[in-house]
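User: Continuing from earlier, I have the next pair ready.

Assistant: Great, send them over.

User: Here they are, in order.

Assistant: Folding the first of the pair now:
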Amino acid sequence: MTYLQMICFISLAETQKMSITASALGLSLSTLSKYIDRLEDEFSVTLFIRKGSRKVLTREGELIYPSIKYMAKQYDDMRRELRTHTSPYDSHISIGIGYQQSHVMRQLTAFIKAHPKVEVAVTECSSNEICSMLNSGRADIGIVYEQIISKKYPRAHPISQDKLCAVVSTDHPLAQCKTISTNALQGEKFLLYKGDSLMYRYLLNVCIAAGFVPDVEYSTLRLSTLLINVAAGNGVTLLTEKTVDIQNISGVVALNLSENPLLTTCAVSLAEYPDQLHDTLIQYLLDGC
């Protein structure tokens, strides 16, 4: 039984959805099925049965679940212990952080300077990749928007809030409005950022909740290029207010949405009982953001 097989088993037992588990771990459905099949072959028992669209543990699966979760935790603890003997650092922490979280990155940089004996590995990536890193044990803490992830992690600490805005060119008829409803954008050509699939899905759902399916331009643009196109009048977009401020592109204006959709930046972790280092880092983020 490999570590990845254990993680697959634990994740599927908790999500009860093959598609969610495969996506979270960055695996194809066929690969996930093979890992589960091999685990069942190894134990010579059926671990999951299908109930509707869910995969639920059998009696044998329920009996073995605590042991596999314990072994996975022991493996993680052993890895952390080994690092203390093979590294000049006293401890190590791995962090996955979403794009455009510069205010959090500043606090992480300050934490690193204040704790030189702690090795901090920071990976900037999409929300989907952060979830995959957490679920596979490659990240100890993930910095993500709480509203765009489907899984509820054992530990989730709100750090800061940002609001979603409509972004139009300064020549757009709506540009003089301070606040508009999302529905006012119906019929517009949308340029949505697709570099983060979970965020993209969230933006689509915001439009659908407002009563329309957005006409999305089929293109993958970087955020800066996307805003340059908005400034040129080639479409409108939805972005967080902080993202618009960070990009600092002239010719665009961010409009408040009357629905006031808020996004909460959270530090999430799989660890139900985090060690003191985790708590120290979380508190550092909470105090500074």
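And the other member of the pair:
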Amino acid sequence: MIITIVGGGSTFTAGIVKSIALRKAELEVEEIRLFDIDKERQDRVAVLVKWILEEDLKSGIRLTVSYDPAEAYKDADFIFAQMRVGKYAMREKDEKIPLRHGCVGQETCGCGGLAYGMRTIFPMMKVIDDAEKYAKPSHWILNYSNPASIVSEACRRLRPNARIINICDMPIAIIDVVAAALNITDKKEIVYDYYGLNHFGWFTSIEYRGKDILGDLRDYIMEHEILLPDAYLKDKAALSNKNKDGNRHAKGSWYYVWKGEYEIMSNFPDTLPNTYLNYYLQQKEFVEHSDPDHTRANEVMESREKNLFDGIDRYLETGVIDETVFYAGSHGDWIADLAIALKNDTKARFLVITENRGAIPNMPYDAMVEVPAYIGKNGPEVIAQDRIPLFQQGLMMQQLNCEKLLVEGCIEGSYQKVLEAFTLNKTVPSMKVAKEVLDDMIEANKEYWPELK
């Protein structure tokens, strides 16, 4: 059993490796390979990964660090993909360029997400092609690379037979916060229904040990005017990026996102929205409280990114590891548990991004939707949903068509279609602004985007 991690230099790699190693018996994993095109970055992260496998867990799992796709993918059973094309330097541009034009600046939503998607489509196709060429015929690619909605649509269009499952851990991060807010310690006992597009969906029910807790959660949110646990609200230091402990999705500018759960549910109380819907339903307000000179990208570079590499440097100097420097938790657990379900045919329930094919009756057949599915050796068995309300359907269709146009424009090199995608996005106030942002994005992404004509 060989697992290859694409984007081995990521700040999330150590946490994912720890999740894999803790499930060694279920996965029967013998070798983990790290693969990245940034040798310097991957070599530094590999120091920490080696410590986890050999010193911390004494796992007996062999580590291979590679920069060659033939070596990295050869006979691999699973490929965990977590690429960030352009790294944080480009994420910063994704966020700051739209803000200069009065639009939401966010890495996966709005114009920033469209730009990031344009950078990621063709590198993801290369991962699929290399895996097809070198990995075992039975391999699975489990993709975390964002923006997952655009990546999954590109996979559907360009590599429809690829053995890939696109996933996102944000709904799980939301459930983590829900559990903490309601003092639930065994979050694995929580079962939820959900539908939408990636970063664009709604929880329609949340149950704990068979009891519906969505009403209790709604009461909590209305009372506190935010979805964050009391422990965080009483300890403001817990919300600081300088604090290495706690949920990474609850620090810094994330405070406004959790506040937005209250604001959205005050108007639309029947469902719990994915936090990313804030950027579409409260675009004006999010622009107003954003700092165009210091965005979430800067927060991450100053906290998670800096903490990790400073911690690695200290380990190399002193031999002492501070485990708080790397993030381990639901992000890694989610992808490792999905691999277990595929390998062992468990039919465990996961939320995945998949072609609709009637799962949501009043959405297009070929829409890439995010819905629950049972996972076994043959992939997802999607759980059919009821017809969704017109409000949610209308929002989803606008976003879906925006993403389809972007993918078509990227594939065809069509400036017109990409401009239409930017114009259609709900975070953009007018076609004039859409064109201004797009033209700035073209200049910023010259090294990464196909030429648009």
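Worth noting for the second one:
The radius of gyration is 21 Å. The first strand starts at residue 2 and ends at 6.
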